[in-house]
Amino acid sequence: MSTTHENGQLKRDVFSQPEFRDRLEELPPSAKLVAKVLETDEPLPQGELAEKSLLPDRTVRYALNRLEESDLVESRYSFTDARKQVYFLDV
């Protein structure tokens, strides 16, 4: 399965990449769920991740920290609102 970025470039399904799966396997279920949400709707701010995953804000924050520590997720400031950070899978 593949998805398309906003700029039209084709992106491989990161969950089928062995290295990505190995690093993700070691993380808690909340981090896996957040990564799955980011696979389909990226980039997203923390609040939207909480809404889409149905997880509490604190749990999403913990999951994002774990994903960033494992180099699976990166963040940047939002182009539309510089006060917010958005998160996306690091592929």
Low-confidence sequence ranges = 1-10
- How much helix, percentage-wise, in residues? 40-55%
Net shape: globular
CATH-assigned homologous superfamily = Winged helix-like DNA-binding domain superfamily/Winged helix DNA-binding domain
The number of distinct structural domains comes to 1
Share in β-strands: 15-25%
Span between termini: 15 Å
Tell me the name of the CATH class. Mainly Alpha
Largest sheet: 3 strands, antiparallel
What's the tally of helices? Answer: 4
Biggest sheet, spatial arrangement of strands: 3-5-4
Output the CATH topology.
Answer: Arc Repressor Mutant, subunit A
CATH architecture: Orthogonal Bundle
Return Rg in Å: 13 Å
| N to C succession of SSEs | EEHHEHHEE
Report mean pLDDT, rounded to a whole number: 86
Structural class designation: alpha+beta
Question: Got a strand count?
Answer: 5
